[in-house]
């Protein structure tokens, strides 16, 4: 479960998912928080309004009615796919429901459908859904024949995905009211398992192109190759680069210029470098160590 999104973050999450949002006047502070808890939240619940017309449905969902004060959801999803935000807090949409369903949503451990609900508002084992779920009311008569336009279904998918993405949930955190309460039939006219498939597919897709990270820059200096490297009689451009740096430091003890094959001349040159740094005794035996190597700043060669 998670801390509910602030109004600003809710709005930003929806817009980032490509939702066309309309902010109903006063929505940011319109809630039922004085009547009970809001959060921690576990998921998203989808409903139908049993009404027609966007404006009147939004007004109803914001105001509520005698016996059920508004807000009745967080957002109203119109038939044209616009989403009208009416609350950012506790809303009267879910009512009491089944604790086993809540558990299934929290763990997202179920197959196509959560367990069949056996509780409802007012029943003895019911738990408060209004504190646990974001709610979205979709404008539809709920008679099974009122059409669900593609734009509206697309908005349901995007709204659900936006909240899942914001909270790190999978699509199984999205349920219909009928999956929460054995008294309810909404949403009617499309299946929640299919909608969850759509949401999960959207979540699986890249959310937004991320800025390309710059390729890590090559180090400016050759990292210390390790003491064993020099004892292995190496032939390497690293040895040549080292010799050139020793020459530049006035420590070259070469008869001919430095080459790739580690030699006694390299050892004697390196010993001069160690002495120049102040090392003495076995610390100035000509065999490179990390401290003197890093001080030499051999240019990166590979
Ligand atoms: Zn409902």
Describe the structure.
The protein is α/β, with parallel strands linked by helices. It has two domains: 7-203, Lysozyme-like; 227-296. 32% of the residues lie in helices and 11% in strands. The protein contains nine helices and ten strands. The chain has helices at residues 7-16, 54-63, 99-107, 150-167, 192-204, 227-231, 237-248, 264-277, 290-296, and strands at 21-23, 43-48, 64-65, 68-69, 75-77, 83-85, 96-97, 127-128, 133-138, 174-176. Strand 5 (75-77) and strand 6 form a beta hairpin. Helix 1 crosses helix 4 (150-167). The radius of gyration is 34 Å and the shape is rod-shaped. It binds zinc ion. This is N-acetylmuramoyl-L-alanine amidase domain-containing protein.
Question: What labels describe this entry?
Answer:
single chain, Amidase/PGRP_sf, N-acetylmuramoyl-L-alanine amidase domain-containing protein, 10 strands, Amidase_domain, rod-shaped, Lysozyme-like, 302 residues, 2 domains, 9 helices, PG_bind_dom_phiBT1-type, alpha/beta, two-stranded antiparallel sheet, binds zinc ion
Q: Specify the overall morphology.
A: rod-shaped
CATH topology of the largest domain: Lysozyme-like
Overall number of domains = 2
Number of strands: 10
What is the arithmetic mean of pLDDT? 94
């Amino acid at each position: 479960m998670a801390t509910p999104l602030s109004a600003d973050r809710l709005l930003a999450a929806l817009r980032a998912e490509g939702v066309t949002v309309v902010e109903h006047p006063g929505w940011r502070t319109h809630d039922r928080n004085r009547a009970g808890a809001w959060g921690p939240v576990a998921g998203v619940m989808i409903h139908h309004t049993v009404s027609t017309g966007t404006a009147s449905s939004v007004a109803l969902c914001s105001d509520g009615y005698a016996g059920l004060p508004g807000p009745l959801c967080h957002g109203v999803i119109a038939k044209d796919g616009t989403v009208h935000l009416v609350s950012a807090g506790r809303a009267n949409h879910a009512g009491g429901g089944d604790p086993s369903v809540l558990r299934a949503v929290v763990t997202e451990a179920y197959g196509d459908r959560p367990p069949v609900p056996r509780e409802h508002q007012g029943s003895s084992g019911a738990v408060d859904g209004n504190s646990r779920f974001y709610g979205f009311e979709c404008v539809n008569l709920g008679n099974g024949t009122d059409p669900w336009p593609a734009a509206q279904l697309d908005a349901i998918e995007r709204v659900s995905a936006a909240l899942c993405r914001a909270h790190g949930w999978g699509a199984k955190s999205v349920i219909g009211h009928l999956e929460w309460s054995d008294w309810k039939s909404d949403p009617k006219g499309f299946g929640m398992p299919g909608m969850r498939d759509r949401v999960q597919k959207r979540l699986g897709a890249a959310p937004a192109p991320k800025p390309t990270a710059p390729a890590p820059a090559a180090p400016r200096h050759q990292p210390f190759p390790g003491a064993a490297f020099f004892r292995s009689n190496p032939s390497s451009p690293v040895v040549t680069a080292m010799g050139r740096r020793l020459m530049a430091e006035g420590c070259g003890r070469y008869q001919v210029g430095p080459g790739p094959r580690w030699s006694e001349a390299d050892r004697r040159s390196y010993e001069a470098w160690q002495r120049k740094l102040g090392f003495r005794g076995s610390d100035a035996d000509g065999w490179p160590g990390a401290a003197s190597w890093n001080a030499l700043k051999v240019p990166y060669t590979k």
